[in-house]
Automatic annotation (TrEMBL):
EC number: 3.5.1.104
Domain NodB homology: 63-241
Keyword Membrane in annotation: yes
Source taxon at top rank: Bacteria
SUPFAM superfamilies named among the record's database cross-references: Glycoside hydrolase/deacetylase (SSF88713)
Any one Pfam family match given in the protein's UniProt record, by short name: Polysacc_deac_1
Annotated keywords: Hydrolase, Membrane, Transmembrane, Transmembrane helix
Designated name of the protein: Peptidoglycan-N-acetylglucosamine deacetylase
UniProt keyword Membrane, yes or no: yes
UniProt GO molecular function: hydrolase activity
PROSITE patterns registered for this protein in UniProt: NODB (PS51677)
Transmembrane segments: 12-41
């Protein structure tokens, strides 16, 4: 399996071989480019498991899927999302940004009290989050953890990396927090695609047993397409189940 350790060992072995054969500098440059390209792929492909072991789908042949929402809670669209989920009797997982939850504690509690589950999406979701040290990441995660604990009296265990980027410092921080990284198999791109038909067609392509769908509860297009998608899921004989049922992993510590 391609991962950070195996790749680095292979890089070191090839580097030693190049040194012993006394080749030109062009080979060293080529080796460096290949190595950095693999690291870049591993960091930005959450499915690769390159730096951090990440759950991206459920292991099932049954027609069951889970849906998740990132970046909330926020006042404009989260209540509309919750009302749609109530209407269709669907339980979802909300990977909340800590600072947004701190700004909307009542909305955070509403999500939880309506039977949905809460995961961490970091506290600040800063643009440079993936460049933080392990200690800085852990401090950020701890701040969010304490907020959710204070407001909901739960100790969360699930974490979704901001931007889907993983790094060696993140692996260390997650180990310290005893968190499980949760990815996705179906990225809706609902913060980028603003055409409902195009978004719906994309969602249809990803519908398969065990799929984990990634939406955002901060986008108007999500509110528009969600009813259509949920009705299509039902028409195809699929069931939307809570994420913990799909991956057989509890969202909170005892």
């Amino acid at each position: 399996m391609l991962n950070f350790r195996n790749t680095t060992v292979a890089f070191a072995v090839v580097l030693i071989l190049l040194i012993t054969t006394n080749v030109g500098w062009g080979w060293y440059l080529l080796l460096l480019v290949v190595y950095l390209s693999i690291l870049f792929y591993g960091s930005y492909s959450i499915h690769s498991q390159f730096f951090v072991k990440t759950i991206c789908s459920g292991s099932t042949n049954e027609k069951k899927i889970a849906i998740t929402f990132d970046d909330g809670p926020q006042q404009q669209f989260t209540p509309q999302i919750l009302e749609l989920l109530r209407k269709y009797n669907v339980k979802a997982t909300f990977f909340c940004i800590g600072k947004n939850a701190a700004s909307h504690p009542l909305l955070l509690k509403q999500i939880y009290e309506q039977g949905h589950h809460i995961g961490s999406h970091s506290y600040a979701h800063g643009f440079w989050f993936d460049l933080l040290t392990a200690r800085q990441m852990q401090a950020d995660l701890q701040q969010a953890h304490e907020l959710f604990q204070k407001e909901l009296s739960v100790n969360i265990k699930w974490f979704r990396p901001p931007y889907g980027v993983t790094t060696p410092p993140m692996k260390k921080a997650l180990q310290q927090m005893n968190y499980t990284a949760i990815g996705w198999s179906a990225r809706s791109l609902d913060t980028m695609i603003q055409d409902e038909e195009r978004l719906f067609l994309r969602l249809k392509r990803f519908l398969k047993p065990g799929a984990i769908f990634l939406f955002h509860d901060c986008s108007a297009i999500t509110v528009q397409v969600l009813p259509r998608f949920l009705e299509y899921v039902q028409e195809q004989g699929f069931e939307v189940v809570p994420l913990f049922n799909l991956i057989n992993l509890p969202p909170y510590a005892d």
